[in-house]
Fold this sequence. Notes:
- The chain is of the alpha/beta class.
- Helix content is about 50%, strand content about 15%.
- The chain is built from eleven helices and seven strands.
- The chain has helices at about 5-10, 30-40, 50-65, 80-90, 115-145, 165-185, 205-210, 215-220, 225-235, 245-255, 260-270, and strands at about 20-25, 45-50, 70-75, 100, 145-150, 190-195, 240.
- Helix 1 (about 5-10) runs parallel beside helix 9, helix 4 (about 80-90) runs parallel beside helix 5 (about 115-145) and helix 5 (about 115-145) runs parallel beside helix 6 (about 165-185).
- The protein is globular and about 50 Å long.
- Keywords: Oxidoreductase.
- One of its GO terms (molecular function) is oxidoreductase activity.
Amino acid sequence: MTERTMSKETTSSSLAGKRALVTGASSGLGLEFADILAAQKIDLVLVARRQEPMEKLASDLRRKYGVDVLVEAVDLASPGAASRLKSSLDAKAIAVDILVNNAGYGLHGDFLETPIERTTDMIQLNITTLTELTYLFGRDMATRGSGHVLLVASLLAFQAVPSYAAYAATKAYVLALGEALHDELRPHGVVVTSLCPGHTATGFDAAAGATDSALLRLLTMKPRPVAASGMRALLQGKAMVVAGLSNKMAAFSNRVTPRSMQRATMRRIMAA
Length: 272
């Protein structure tokens, strides 16, 4: 999707002047979501654990697009973080019209060899905090009768993935939640869309403790078109989108292949 196409779709949706909250805004896809939204004159709340990179991004976006940008440094992996963030924004009388639930990370390696504390921290961020944010801000949107929620799932949500067992399971939850809420919240004027990226050139692998395989490097997408495809699908009111043609083909193939074959294939793809 081009920036010009994005501009036309956003204008038709009358989102200019609204406020978007982007989690995981200090790096990766979060940077692209923030830039795409700001380019359409949408004010922002940037949320992540690291304040310094967000302050730099906020300064750049204010200068480039003339939008209002608020930075909230919050460790979203901590219990109760979603409620604290919501209370902070309520105290500032800031209403969120677009929620981009992008924060999350993966863990690569055998399940039993990964400290359980790291796995539960990941589940807290990828599932619990995401669910709480969707509930807290989605409830306000439903009361107002309008709103948009983008949930970032993954291509790995479509099958079990040895060496990414718990991570893939968290993303399967995100995808199922998002598709269900798409139907539940639509009568209340709230659009919920799940974005399923494949392997993307962000800091994901380093954070997960993984090394790219040669095949993964061939399948890697740049973050900008991934973020743009998610925003386009959200504005078009779609329930779900898989970013990239090869990733769409991979997701479709899961409908016709045995699950044992899927696991074996993913083990080979993910092998370093």
